[in-house]
Amino acid sequence: AKGKGQAQARVNISAALVEDIINLEETSEDMQAVVDALKEDFSRNLNIRTSPGAFDHITVVTKDGKFPLNQLGQILQKSPQLIIVNMTNFPESTAAAMKAIRESGMNLNPEVDGTIIRIPIPKITREHRESLAKLAKQSVNKSKDALRKVRSKSVTQIKKSKNKVSEDTIWMLEKQIQQMADDAAAEMDKLLAAKTKELLG
Fold first, then answer.
1. Strand (E) or helix (H) holding 68
2. What is the rounded CA–CA span in Å between residue 31 and residue 120?
């Protein structure tokens, strides 16, 4: 594998030179947004340890609108196996909060006691770790699809200018966008590798 040592020569076109063809910075931001959304998904939804912070973003649907759980109740960790949500400030939303926790996809079975919701945290099984690792892979595949859409959209946009600019410029731009997509995909693969290691240990 003698080609290994020589990385592909990278193209680096000045964004200013091609701004009437395509906004490369915007393309880069769109790709980065896909990567950031994946990071957010990993940290929010794919944790082994269920911490109080994992509940902050659960959306509770009340008759007054949708609210994050942490705005309606006080979330406390009583022990590694028990999290409590104190709904004293909004007792009328207790049932809605219960429903939101039960349907959060976190595999929880909350119990209510007046305005206190008790959430026993299930023991982490190997199956649970493996299913989280599968979900992580699915998330990355979805993100890569989103990335491909950003890339295709940009390439389509460049091709519209083929009467105005040289074939070389089009080729260079396509190559640059492919590089940007490859970099973003490589970052996703790193995130997946780290997350899989964390989940499967």
1. strand 65-68
2. 39
